[in-house]
User: Fold these one by one.
Assistant:
Number 1:
Amino acid sequence: MTGSQLVAVLGRGVVDASAPVLLADDFGLTRGDGCFDATRVVTDASGTRVDNLDAHLARLGRSCRILAMEGFDPDAWLDLVEQSVQAWRTPGEATLKLIVTRGLEHTPPRHLTGILTITPLDPVGIHQRQGITIAALTRGYASDAFMDAPWLLGGAKTLSYAFNTAARREASRRGADDVLFMSTDGKALEGPTSALVWAKDGQLFTTQHDGTGILASITQEMVFAHAEDEGVETDYVLADLATVMDADASWMLSSIRGVAPITAIDGVPVTTDAGLTGRINRWARFA
Ligand code: PLP
């Protein structure tokens, strides 16, 4: 570990953060052919804990299956995470990233590449838990585009996030903090790195997975499970922007930034609900 980042490599363990970890013909580098998962690490006086590690490892395995990348070994990853967490001493919140690529194109041996990083959480993300403004931007496909089209890799957390970061730059140009992706038929999808949840008449809603290709959010699933335990009804639907703007409250949810209440969409202020935001934070274990 050097500076403020920890780096580990599957099959090697924790390495010097400035050591080379990729070869030039790695499919992850040359084609963005791979997947990743990310969650929060919290270090305080009681030690270091990783949020929902089992769920994130399961989703990483699922992403590998969608990409038809064979050889994902959850036990080897668990081992690497444990070694890395033991070596991580920086207090506060951090991001744990698990990155898997298809491996090397020309150089044997042919096996998946696995890289882990832990990096202190960006203070901007922490600040955005107070509220975010959103720009609604097209994602460029219809809400049913992923139906019967597995080659589009719907539901996989692939390495190909260049358009997600480009959309964030566009939001910033428009003076907004984050993006809500819209389908070409006008349905709200998800953020570049977060799930959309909104409340209406005491019920919680999020985007349906079928056909939309969105990522199943572990934070949203946890929030819905706890909400139902407390008698709050939940549903997965397709909604247009007016429905989201007319909600009693809305949030962008993700494992690292946590629960970010939406305060405005395309420059128009929207309603927030501090009480419900508090409950959602508790359900997401961010309180
Ligand atoms: N949707 C996308 C595209 C994401 O990249 C993420 C998180 O990285 C999410 C939703 C939220 O998922 P989670 O709550 O599991 O972090």
Note: The longest helix spans residues 53-66.
Number 2:
Amino acid sequence: MAIRQDDNRPNRRFGIINLVLIGFGVLLLFSNFLPNQAAQVPRVPYSLFIDQVNDGHVKRAYITQDQIRYEITDAEEGAPSVLATTPIFDMDLPQRLEQKGVEFAAAPPKRPNFFTTLLSWVVPPLIFILVLQFFARRQMGGGAQGALSFTKSKAKVYVPDEESRVTFADVAGVDEAKTELNEIVDFLKNPERYAAIGARIPKGVLLVGPPGTGKTLLSKAVAGEASVPFFIISGSEFVELFVGAGAARVRDLFEEAKKKAPCIIFIDELDAIGKSRSGSMGVVGGNDEREQTLNQLLTEMDGFSAQDKPVIVLAATNQPETLDAALLRPGRFDRQVLVDRPDLSGRKKILDIYANKVKLAEGVDLDKIAQATSGFAGADLANLVNEAALLAARAYRTTVEQGDLNEAIERVVAGLEKKSRVLQPDEKKVVAYHEVGHAIVGHLMPGGSKVAKISIVPRGMAALGYTLQLPTEERFLNSKEDLEGQIATLLGGRSAEEIVFGEVTTGAANDLQRATDIAEQMVGTYGMSDTLGPLAYDKQGGSRFLGGPSNPRREVSDATAQAIDHEVRGLVDRAHERALSILHGNRDLLENIAGKILDKEVIEGDELKELLASSTLPSEAVLTPA
Ligand code: ADP
Ligand code: MG
Ligand code: ZN
């Protein structure tokens, strides 16, 4: 049985409180006994008392509401001289006593004595506090922490030692993130150099990416590379039962960290405290606690500025869009590092890391495994290798074989299917053509964007693949041709599916939504329709800010409504025709790029540029200024 040292403290405090309580209880009892001292005085009948008064034997009497105590003059030897009797209602008594020359006095009206008053005020609250404390202790779970220590930060501290140190070598497939974080390592190692030149060391770095991609691992690696202590706490641990506890914990955490600086604080699940404050308005129930915690975090991050002893706050989230804008301001989490799911070569490297930890059979081909695990995050791959090792061990084999790995893929996929999408090979093919369709049309159409990257690595639930278009220049105004080009580009994915497979899938739903939105805005908001003229048919209402994409329409006649629908339809149809003719005209290129991307999953940079440069714009698809 392990008895934790901490257990003693709260118990002793408990004991003291109990002792005080018991003391008060005894006093209370005692004070109840006080009037009962009279019980020792012999009681006599009232008639005897009157007789004695009449006979002049009574020297003095003391009258209270429920007792008369009196002293007699001629008590016999050994007999008590003080007697008591119970008074009866007798208005003549004072007169009689006076006549006989008895010295008498009445007690003041009965008043609660000071002690009982005090006790009645002190004891109930004490009991109340005691009960509260009891529950608070249970609430803390385990009771290792005292009732009053719930404001202590629960951060765990790792001081990296040589053996358990995590380094960048343990993380693979996230090279861009590593490059960025390398800079942070340098800040932590040589703060003087930066301080000397007057450079401001960043305080906060936000790691953004889906679960299991190695955000926690990366921040541990930063601490490991820089050989500094590492505080780790989850956002949800800040926010608990007691209002104000979260804020106190933040304060405590930074207090501790400053003592150990230079060091790293890692806040996992930042979204648990950092949710947009305005976004949560109107939600019933207490966000106070979270808000206080968030405010405290912002205050602390603004507060410290010791250049030579940096405390760098790393945080992780998979919902960056929900974060409060205040968190992302300069001096806070102004750096953001994307930690994305690994591509083919990244997956191979991660598999290599974990395969090194198990015994692989001769001739196992990890490339094949990497190819079959599109969409897996680092954690899934680690899990996969472990599953394979378990399978091998169960079959009493001493090495992991290709078959084990293949079976493990299926197991992991089965577990993943609910969480995120894992593409089947035939789906992957559809996604490849779809994305290349977007890319070719996007390259040839105006709209101010250049196609920078095509990927068929699934990202979350919504997008199975994506084509990244980067604007070539800042643009505030779009011409009618630009917008028509954008619609055509959005329809490029579906058009490619039509051309290659002769049918369409559900994957294009989001594209169609956006294309239709643009067309509606062109007609209804921007007045770009020749037949309907420069009228704004959509009302710009406040509802836009509540996230509804569709504006309410102005009151229009049925005929106008029909005309609007007709125009919108016409815009989308023409764009579709354009996309189809572009893809028909570049059919070979479509096949070529799709084949490449099925191999590599990602095409970007110069390679993509060269491929797209060979595309041609058919004359019927040329957009002419109206
Ligand atoms: P996150 O914090 O992004 O949810 P973690 O860092 O907790 O993910 O990853 C969980 C585990 O998965 C890690 O401990 C590590 O074993 C493995 N892992 C995840 N990503 C990688 C990666 N890029 N390289 C190597 N291992 C990884
Ligand atoms: Mg994590
Ligand atoms: Zn698409």
Note: Residues 1-12, 140-149, 279-285, 541-550 have pLDDT under 50 and may be disordered.
